[in-house]
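Sorry, explain these tokens?

___
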Amino acid sequence: MILAFPRSQALSGTVFEVLVPNSNQPPLKPLHADDSLIGSKLEKYGKLSDQELIDSLIPGRQGSLKARADGTIVDGHHRIKILRDRGVDVDSLPREVIPKDAIPEPP
């Protein structure tokens, strides 16, 4: 089952996001290299428990795990990196799927 729900988008009206169930999800892959992640964010999130990090990634919440249909992470890079380093199966976490064209390119 795939759930689609509207999400208001400041730039271009309404964008539909899709919540993909845990099975049939592609593995998460980083958009950014690990060495480009911000040290202070890694330190901040590193103080949280696995469950606190997982809860912060729940779809529908601000800062939720967002990825493209191919598994490329759009939001949640630092928390996913920490969870992966701790041995958590992040690929099975629920995520909001964001169409590639819904993300504005920088000028």
Summary: Residues 1-14 have pLDDT under 50 and may be disordered.
